[in-house]
Amino acid sequence: MSILELHQTVTVKKTQQSQLSEVDWEALEFGKYVSDHMFLCSYDQGAWQEAAVLPYQNLSLAPTTLALHYGQSIFEGMKAFRQKDGRIAIFRIEKHHDRLNRSLDRMCMPPVPYELFEAALTELIRTDRDWVPRAEGSALYIRPLIFASEARFGVKVSDQYQFVVITGPSPMLYAKPIKVKVERNYIRAAKGGTGYAKCAGNYGGAFYPTQQARAEGFDQVLWTDAGTHEYFEESGTMNLLFALNGTLITPPLSDTILDGITRDSLLQLAADLKIPCEERQIGIQELVKAIEAGDMVEAFGAGTAAVIAPIASFSVDGRLYEMPVANEQSCMHRLKQELDAIRYGHKEDRHNWNYYID
Question: What is the arithmetic mean of pLDDT over 331-353?
Answer without folding.
Answer: 96
